[in-house]
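== Fold encoding ==
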Amino acid sequence: MNEHSATLALQPVPLTTPVPALQEEAPDPKRWMALVVLLTGAFLPAFDFFVVNVALPAMHTELGAAPADQELVVAGYGLAFAVLLITGGRLGDLYGRKRLFIVGMIGFTIASALCGLAATPGMLIAARILQGATAAAMNPQVLAMIRVTFPPGERARAIGYFGTTLGLASIAAQLVGGVLIQADIAGLSWRPIFLVNVPVGAVALVFAARVLRESRASGRPTLDFGGIGLATLTVLLLVYPLVEGQPLGWPAWTIVCLVASAPALGLFVLWEWLVQSRGRAPLVNLRLFRDPAFSLGLVMAMTFFSGLAAFFMGLTIFLQQGFGYGPLACGLVFVAFGIGFVGCSLFSSHVSRRLGPLTITLGTALQGITLLVIVVMAAMGHGAPLNMLILWPVLIVYGCGQGLALPTLVASVVGSSRIPPQEAGAASGVFTMVQQTGFALGIAVIMGLFFTVLGADPTRADWERALATALACNVGLMALTGVLALFLPRRPPVPGVIVHIE
């Protein structure tokens, strides 16, 4: 092979057909109204992941949902969402992002109605999986359309609102869910937490049709069906036995599945490499992982979001099932978290301009310290965690930490990594997939440990010990995230993907 041939062989294979630069266009005058619609598409999936936590005790009472069923109601949704996110992004490239956003919103609204009408735990789990699948069609279009709709000078601000929306959804889920369950509207108990999505989705669809502009990437990338199948298999082999293993006493098939997830991941990577080497569009472009900041950011996203999901679920179950808090009282506890989060997320961008990724370290340090306080309170026993006057200031500080860390983490990995513009959409899809997988793994592993420590017939001391154990895991995850942030480089934002706009 001569020198010229060797040079050609080392040229990267593009993810999609190269996109010619477009002439500058006037900003869309409806872009801020469009952002409200798009953020609704980000809010609803996150809201429905967390709102279930408040309703789990009521589901247990009314539907007879066992702990394993409760975990599947939460983890099944996150799993379906995670494995189909990048596929949803590819479908948006093929058929138009506005079109996929609307299709996903329609499906999500229908699935929410089915959740509200479910008569058995199995029906609810199936409807939740459908919710996750349709959310995966809708959600990837949000960041992609923000990049299309907003000029570079406004794009960072709009992406910041996206990160804040994720946090607000987790807060609203606790409070709104508590209010709806406590009100017991028409004797429906927990069902309105899903049925409320129906009118919200209907209104969002009306405005989406009017204010969103259709967009798609130039060129027509083909779907990597082999990659979709192998990615789905890998995540299922990993997460499903983690969810089911503890309640079933870890039968042999759960161990076999866990072991098999490693070679399945290897086959997925090999398949993607073969697809990419042949000049076709893989499900995940492996060249994304050559950027150390992106690869490190994905590890941080896994540790951060795993702890976040387990924190909300563990504290909610502890307060309601362990110490008799009603849904509304439990939601009011999390208002303190919301106050801290909203207050700090509003100026997190200003802090990150000065501190860079150290903002994540500062935020996770605040979260870790406050979690340690709750661990000590739980270990002390004697009902100390029941005192709302103590919980409120502790959760305000915890919310401040997350308000600093979460938007900065999203911006650092998705907005500031040195990734070629034509691959920015794929990078966002991978990040969101890791986020959702982290949610599912956090529920499976940490909450599995929570229920193991709790036992079959728990006493007050058992509840306190289970909470302390679960939150101690979270402290470790926050500490690890903060340390890894020290190795993230400070980088300027990268411009968005150039697309064809109809």
